[in-house]
C-alpha cells in the first residue's frame, strides 16, 4: 500500500513542529451532560425505529444538530486545534446494530452472508453517508467560525471508529477460523465513510480507538483506494491520516493483541501525520506505552486518554477531573513525548480547557528529520 503523501506540507504539520496541538474531548460524555432522552435522539424522523437509539450518539448529528454544534463550539473555545466529527460508529456495519434484526435472536448467526446484505442495504448506506457528511459539515462550520474569530486555524478530523465486528478473532470457540465479516466487506464500509467525511469538508482522517489492527488495516486500505480511485494523487490533495490505538494494561491492542511496537511496525508504511494512543486507559497507566511509541515512531505522537477509570458516582462517569488530566498531560509534555494532546472518554470541554492551559508554552516532542514520502 502506498504511503499517504502530503502530510509533510500540511499546515497542521508546521504547528506540530512548534507547539503541542490540542485535540477535543469525549463527544459521548459531553452529550450526556445535556440530559437527552430516547425521544430526543429519535426526533420525528426516527420515531418508529424498532430498537432503542440512545446509545447511537452519531444519530444526534441528524436529530439534534444544535446540540452537536454547541459541543463543537465549546471544545473549540476551550482551546482545541482539532475537533472530531461525531462519526465514531457511522458505518453501515455499525449502524446495522440499531436498525436490523439480530439473526442470533432467531436461531441464526451473523456471518459474511448477513453482512453482505448490510453492505448492500441502500437505507444503511445512505444513512451512514448522511451522518458522516453532515457531521463533517457541522464541524467545518464551527472550526471556520471560531478560527476566523480568533485568527488561529482549526482543523476537522474525520473520525473513523473500530466497528462492532472483528477481523482478527472468531466469536465461535469451536470454530477459530470463522469470521463474521470479510476484509473486503469492512473495507467497503470504511470507503463509504471516508468519501462522505471528505465530502463534508474534513481536513484530516483519524483512524482511532484501534482495538483490532486488521480492522484498522482495512480502514487504511480503504483510504488509499479512495484517494487512488477518486483522482487525489493526480488532481487533488490527499488528506493526511492520523492513527490512534487503544491498548490494555499490558500495552497490547485489545483484540489483535499487538504490542505497541508491533502496532507501529504494522502502520509505519502509511507514513501518517501522527500515530498515538487513546481511550482504554487513564493517563497514569498509559505513560510507559506512550513512551515506547515515542521512542519507536518517527512521526508526530498523539495522546488522548480516558479520564481515569470508570466511576458511575462521578459527574462525568470517570475518576479524573480537569486539573488531574492537566497534570498528567503536563507530565507527558515535560517528558518530551507528545505533539498532540487531548482527552477521550470522560473528558468534557472543561477538561480540554485545563489541558490546553497546562500545555501552553510547553515544547512539543521533537520530530527530527522526518521524511514523508511524496
Salient structural properties:
globular, alpha/beta, 374 residues, 9% strand, eight-stranded parallel β-sheet
In helices, the fraction of residues equals 40-55%
Radius of gyration: 20 Å
Q: Given the helix and strand composition, which structural class is it?
A: alpha/beta
H/E element string?
A: HEHHHHEHHHEHEHEHEHEHEH
Tally of structural domains: 1
Query: pLDDT under 50 segments (min length 5)?
Result: 369-374
SSE arrangement:
Blueprint: H1 11-18, E1 21-22, H2 27-32, H3 38-42, H4 60-63, H5 65-77, E2 82-84, H6 92-99, H7 112-120, H8 122-150, E3 155-160, H9 183-199, E4 204-210, H10 213-229, E5 241-245, H11 260-267, E6 274-278, H12 283-296, E7 300-304, H13 322-334, E8 340-341, H14 349-359
Parallel strand pairs: 1-8, 2-3, 3-4, 4-5, 5-6, 6-7, 7-8
Helix pairs in contact: 5-8, 5-14, 6-8, 8-9, 9-10, 13-14
What's a quick, concise take on this entry?
The chain has 374 residues and is of the alpha/beta class.
Characterize the structure shown.
This protein is of the alpha/beta class. It has a single domain (7-359), classed as TIM Barrel. Helices cover 43% and strands 9% of the residues. It has an eight-stranded parallel sheet. Helix 5 runs parallel beside helix 8 (122-150), helix 5 (65-77) runs parallel beside helix 14 and helix 8 (122-150) crosses helix 9 (183-199).
Amino acid at each position: 500500500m502506498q504511503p499517504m503523501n502530503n502530510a509533510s506540507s500540511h499546515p497542521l504539520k508546521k504547528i506540530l513542529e512548534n507547539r503541542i496541538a490540542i485535540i477535543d474531548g469525549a463527544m459521548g460524555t459531553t452529550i450526556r451532560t445535556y440530559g437527552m432522552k430516547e425521544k430526543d435522539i429519535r426526533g420525528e424522523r426516527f420515531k418508529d425505529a424498532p430498537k432503542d437509539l440512545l446509545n447511537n450518539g452519531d444519530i444526534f448529528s441528524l436529530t439534534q444538530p444544535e446540540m452537536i454544534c454547541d459541543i463543537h463550539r465549546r471544545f473549540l473555545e476551550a482551546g482545541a486545534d482539532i475537533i472530531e466529527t461525531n462519526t465514531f460508529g457511522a458505518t453501515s456495519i455499525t449502524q446495522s446494530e440499531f436498525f436490523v434484526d439480530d439473526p442470533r435472536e432467531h436461531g441464526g448467526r451473523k456471518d459474511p452472508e448477513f453482512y453482505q446484505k448490510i453492505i448492500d442495504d441502500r437505507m444503511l448506506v445512505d444513512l451512514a453517508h448522511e451522518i458522516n457528511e453532515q457531521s463533517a459539515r457541522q464541524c467545518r462550520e464551527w472550526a471556520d467560525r471560531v478560527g476566523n474569530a480568533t485568527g488561529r486555524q482549526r482543523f476537522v478530523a474525520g473520525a473513523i471508529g473500530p466497528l462492532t465486528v472483528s477481523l482478527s478473532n472468531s466469536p465461535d470457540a469451536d470454530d477459530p477460523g470463522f469470521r463474521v465479516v470479510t476484509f473486503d466487506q469492512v473495507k467497503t464500509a470504511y470507503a463509504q465513510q471516508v468519501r462522505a467525511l471528505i465530502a463534508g469538508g474534513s481536513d484530516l482522517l483519524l483512524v482511532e480507538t484501534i482495538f483490532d489492527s486488521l480492522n484498522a488495516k482495512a480502514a487504511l486500505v480503504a483510504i488509499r483506494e479512495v484517494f487512488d480511485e477518486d483522482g487525489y494523487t493526480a488532481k487533488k490533495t490527499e488528506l493526511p491520516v492520523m492513527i490512534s490505538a487503544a491498548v490494555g494494561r499490558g500495552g497490547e491492542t485489545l483484540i489483535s493483541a499487538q504490542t505497541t511496537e508491533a502496532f507501529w511496525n504494522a502502520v509505519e508504511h502509511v507514513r501518517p501525520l501522527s500515530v498515538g494512543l487513546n481511550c482504554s486507559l487513564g493517563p497514569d497507566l498509559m505513560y510507559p506505552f506512550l513512551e515506547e511509541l515515542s521512542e519507536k515512531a518517527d512521526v508526530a505522537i498523539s495522546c488522548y486518554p480516558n479520564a481515569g477509570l470508570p466511576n458511575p458516582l462521578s459527574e462525568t462517569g470517570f475518576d479524573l477531573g480537569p486539573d488531574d488530566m492537566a497534570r498528567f498531560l503536563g507530565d507527558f509534555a515535560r517528558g518530551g513525548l507528545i505533539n498532540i494532546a487531548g482527552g477521550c472518554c470522560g473528558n468534557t470541554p472543561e477538561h480540554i480547557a485545563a489541558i490546553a492551559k497546562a500545555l501552553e508554552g510547553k515544547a512539543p516532542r521533537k520530530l527530527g528529520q522526518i521524511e514523508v514520502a511524496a
